[in-house]
Amino acid sequence: MEELIIKQYEKTGILSLSDLTLPTEEQLRKGVAIIECVQEIPCDPCVAICPVGAISIKDINDTPKIDFNKCTGCKRCIGICPGLAIFVIKLKDDKAFVTIPYEFLPVPKKGEFVKALDRRGKPRGKGRVVKVNTNNKTAVVTIEVDKDLALDVRNIKTD
Amino acid sequence: MTVDEVPNVRTCITPLKENMKVLEQDRVGEIPDKKFYGRNKKNIDSDIVIVGSGPAGLMAAISAAEQGVPRILLLDENHLFGGQLVKQSHKFFGSEEEKAGTRGIEIAFELIKEVNSFKNIKSFLETTVIGCYNGKKNHKLVAVKRKREGDQLIEINCKSVIFACGAMENMLAFPGNDLPGVYGAGGVQTLMNVYGVKPGKQVLMVGAGNVGLIVSYQLLQSGVNVNRVIEIMPKIGGYNVHAAKLRRCGVPIFTSHTIKEAYGKDKVEGAILEEIDDRFQPIPGTEENIPCDTICIAVGLTPSIRLLEQIGAKTEFIAEAGGHVSIHDLSMQTSVKGIYVAGDSSGIEEASTAMLEGQLAGISAAAFLGYDKKAEKLKQGCIKALEGFRSGPFGLKPKICKEKIACCWNGGINY
User: What is the count of structural domains for chain A?
Assistant: First the structure.
């Protein structure tokens, strides 16, 4: 039966880092996907699209599990996820490349500066757009931010 | 309501025309003989009639056609096929076989294309079924087709009917809920995504189920500001991924909050909200005034079963179904032989399961008429897929709903 204890994110809609499976610093330097999908929703397109079989699921209602050692950070899962819940993070020196799904217009252009927002929608500084891909009308945008913001920045806002 | 002398019309989805005469109705209306007397009435003989062309109706038509049923008639009262699919601009969840990762509107286009490719499916838009009668051998449906040169009455004789009529949005009782600017969330979605009309500038969303969360996000995509989402329950009802999308755009969600009243002179100018305790009682001193010009109500749906009731299908009140539903067996047949139900009309759920139920009903109705190409095997496949969808935590409610329906079907009422 349903659990009686209400989790914090069920009240707020905001996940905290303790709700997630996170990669090590070394894995982050290689570049990996972080899947922010913690509920048992009947859904599995991320498993089907992964070219290296890094994402697995026991049955359709299970949450996806990712093997950070297999993941190559190819970003294909970002555009297919119906929940827009997958992000790819890659650390380089003191910078972080955060790749997010983005479904608003105008789609930012390479080289532009955008506001980097966290899971609460709060601006956390500026990000430089380094890459934009569109897949099925969902833009997949990579921005460069300070390394410290790698696990916090999850959205952007164009001015 | 009665519109231009045609009874049993849902005015909320009827396009407005000049000099339209709209009257309230307090019971099922009579067939407007006078209006149509002497005018050419159309008679159609059909094998299977499908009422409603949403995900369930489209799949029912396709799967019955694949079974080789020669005369299938698909009717919809809207001016587009696809039901709610046409306004779903987000990607669907599910597995690859159920077209997951595809946007609802694209699924609608694919299915409509498939329907049109079958010579044995005839389809009518802007056609409202206003009455249905159950004969000894045949069923008779009376429909009105809206045409430019005037309405036309259609009398349909058929052997089997699949009702995939969907559902209606629930309203919430609060002072000021009759002010212009108070909408159903589905209505707002139609305005935005079908007609390209912004409903307002500043929206208050009431209800944090998937509909409330998705429509809020689509409002943001349309450039409309969403002030906040409130939810009376202590937790968000919809998927966290939908809530997270809104939160990272800066839209707050307040659980254990309700709307006390809406105010405004001639239209909505704002709302008073309040927090509630664990017994759903307002907590004094928590009232908050929120200026807004649009209030969106997303507090669930009620199955549309009027026609099923009229044809004599047995109905029961099942809370998990969203209200009264006609009970049905595993093949989606109701208590009236040859009459089937699928989709939200048989209990509120979502598009993927509606498609599966439609498929099941289409195959079953075809088999009932003797068109059987491995029907039993196909049906088992649908039933298994439905069980899969209903086995997770978010499938619990429909699972209980269907268990209760099965219980009623078997004669039990002590669920």
Answer: 1
> Which structural domain, as residue segments, surrounds residue A76?
26-157
Interface of A with B in 12-71 (CB under 8 A): 12-15, 36-45, 48-49, 59-61
Q: Which residues of chain A are within 8 Å of residue B96 when distances are taken between CB atoms?
A: 44-45, 48
Q: Which residues of B touch A49 (CB under 8 A)?
A: 101
| Distance, C-alpha A122 to centroid of its chain | 17
State the 10-residue block means of pLDDT for chain A, 159 residues long: 78 96 96 97 93 93 95 95 97 97 96 97 97 89 97 95
Domain annotation covers residue A95: yes
Q: How many angstroms separate the CA atoms of B296 and B263, rounded? A: 14
How many beta-carbon pairs under 8 angstroms link A with B? 128
Instruction: Note whether B241 contacts A40, CB cutoff 8 Å.
Output: no
Quote the tokens at residue B11: 């005015």
Evaluate whether residue A1 is within a structural domain: no
Delineate the domains of chain B, giving CATH numbers in brackets.
Answer: 2-168+302-409 (3.50.50.60), 171-299 (3.50.50.60)
- Please report whether residue A100 resides in a domain: yes
pTM of whole model > 0.90? yes
Measured from the Cβ of residue B337, the count of other Cβ atoms closer than 10 Å reads: 10
Cα–Cα distance for residue pair B316/A131, rounded to 1 Å? 56
Find the length of chain A. Answer: 159
List, for residues B102-161, the tens digit of each pLDDT value. 999 999 999 999 999 999 999 999 999 988 988 778 999 999 998 888 889 999 999 999
Residue A108 inside a domain? The answer is yes
